[in-house]
Design a protein that fits this description.
Blueprint lengths: L3 E10 L8 H13 L5 E4 L1 H6 L7 E6 L2 H11 L2 E8 H7 L15
Antiparallel strand pairs: 1-3, 1-4, 2-3
């Protein structure tokens, strides 16, 4: 039987959290220190819709600890809330890293 749990969420317009690559490094660091089962997930805009979170064209971070979300909110902005999630579904569908940063070619 799946475990459903209230978790903390940080929502922001797509690219606000992941655009510069710092969030990707933060997620990697969390997983390196605490293992792949750390309760800290990135949701792409597609996953935000799939998990039924409100809004359009948003990305999100979901975490078990409010301090993680509060720190990320101070760093990146966005809106925080809580929502219920199926933990097994998160582990299966949201195990990917945030996208790598897109660098612009500024050479002449």
């Amino acid at each position: 039987m799946s475990e459903t749990k209230d978790l903390y969420v940080l929502l922001a317009p797509a690219g606000q959290l992941s655009g510069n690559g710092q969030l990707r490094e933060t997620v990697k660091e969390q997983r390196n220190r605490k293992g792949d089962e750390v309760p800290f997930w990135y949701l792409s805009p597609e996953l935000v819709k799939r998990f039924g979170l409100p809004g359009q064209d948003l990305e999100a971070i979901v975490a078990e600890e409010s301090s993680s979300i509060n720190w990320l909110k101070l760093r990146f902005g966005g809106e925080s809330c809580t929502s219920q999630f199926d933990i097994d579904q998160l582990r299966q569908e949201a195990k990917g890293l945030p996208p790598a940063p897109r660098f612009k070619d500024i050479s002449v």
